[in-house]
Write a structure and sequence with these properties.
Membrane topology: Multi-pass membrane protein
Organism: Sulfobacillus acidophilus
Helix content: 55-70%
Radius of gyration: 20 Å
Distance between the termini: 18 Å
GO molecular function: lipid-linked peptidoglycan transporter activity; peptidoglycan glycosyltransferase activity
Number of helices: 12
Subcellular location: Cell membrane
Number of strands: 5
Protein name: Probable peptidoglycan glycosyltransferase FtsW
Number of domains: 1
């Protein structure tokens, strides 16, 4: 796959394909029992995951072939569409509510999460804006504050769903892009310090979030309540040992572990494939982060460097949060594991981001 500018980063591509293959297998293993008992066929979620993965690979190839500098003209339209959908999902009878959260739009089983498109739109827009206003970013009031104000619109809308995990991933990506674009460390430090009390307020004003914090500190104190997810995940990981129980032999996936093939799929992976399987996945994510930041550092211009930084950081933060939650390193929050968890819009748009990275990799020095 040569172009006039160079070759794609095949190591990045193979790492992502490895994660996708592992994810497809474990999604089937983790969902088969639930699908059979509730829908009459063990292949329900597997079939849909394969369809979404195939669509995502088509999008990846298209993004890898569509020269990255053209994304500048799409930055604002994609962002505006994402904001409209984020508002729409909060409107009763339009947004679909599941487990107390209103995060989906769609009809029947065909549902998408506007927050996934918001991630793409945010990265495109701020890569464009930071490129145009790079000379202002060293000035706190002229450069940092206006961009932060725009980013706050995204934070508030996603947090209102409510989705604290995705909000944190988007916020983390924004601040990393801001740092790479040239903002001063002391300005970012001041923002981080001021964000901590805001995060505290967000947590204490919602009882379930505060309960998750207390359960994180001692999950066995709430074994049938907020600590249930964490305890079942740790039981799954502990049961797997070094080599695992084998594919299809997860006990926790038989209705004990909530969200077994979405948010907590890493626990099922650890139970069935053991420490060897979980370390393989972690190493593949490290390769994705390494190659992504390598592309960002060798990118030919500021816009492409910020795009690569944004997509790499988003994948890395999501993976870190998900694995941290499953291993009881972080409090429970709902966020999927990229390329591994079951999901349509998340999988397709994550693969689209990889396509952009591959596109930029053709032009690296």
């Amino acid at each position: 796959m040569k172009t006039r500018s160079g070759r794609f980063d095949y190591l990045l591509l193979f790492a992502v394909l490895g994660l996708l293959a592992i994810g497809t297998i474990v999604v089937f293993s983790a969902s088969a029992a639930t699908a059979y008992t509730t829908l009459g066929t063990p292949y329900y979620y597997l079939e849909r995951q394969i369809i979404w993965a195939a669509l995502g690979l088509v999008v990846l190839l298209a993004a890898a072939r569509y020269d990255y500098w053209h994304y500048q003209k799409w930055a604002l339209p994609v962002f505006v569409v994402a904001m409209v959908l984020l508002v729409a999902v909060l409107i009763p009878h339009i947004g679909i509510e599941i487990n107390g959260a209103r995060r989906w739009l769609g009809v029947g089983t065909l549902q998408v999460q506007p927050s996934e498109l918001a991630k793409i739109g945010m990265i495109f827009l701020f890569a464009r804006l930071f490129t145009l206003h790079q000379d202002r970013l060293s000035d706190f009031w002229r450069g940092v504050v206006p961009h932060l104000g725009l980013a706050m619109v995204i934070f508030v809308l996603v947090l209102a769903e409510p989705d604290l995990g995705t909000t944190m991933a988007i916020a983390g990506t924004f601040f990393v892009m801001l740092f790479v674009a040239g903002a001063k460390k002391r300005h970012l430090g001041a923002l981080f310090a001021s964000a901590l009390p805001v995060l505290g307020i967000v947590i204490v004003t919602e009882p379930y979030r505060l309960q998750r914090i207390t359960a994180f500190l001692d999950p066995w104190k709430h074994p049938l309540g907020e600590g249930f997810h964490t305890i079942q995940a740790l039981l799954a990981l502990g049961s797997g040992g070094i080599l695992g129980l084998g594919l299809g032999y997860s006990r926790q996936a038989l209705g004990y572990l909530p969200e077994a093939f979405t948010d907590f799929i890493f626990a099922v992976l650890g139970e069935e494939l053991g420490l060897l399987g979980t370390l393989t996945v972690v190493v593949l994510f490290v390769i994705v982060a390494w190659r992504g930041y390598r592309i960002a550092m060798r990118a030919p211009d500021t816009f492409s460097s910020l795009l690569a930084t944004g997509f790499t950081t988003m994948i890395a933060i999501q993976a870190a949060i998900n694995i941290g939650v499953v291993t009881a390193t972080l409090p429970v929050t709902g966020i999927t594991l990229p390329f591994i968890s079951y999901g349509g819009s998340s999988l397709v748009l994550s693969l689209a981001g990889v396509g952009v990275l591959l596109n930029i990799s053709r032009h690296t020095t």
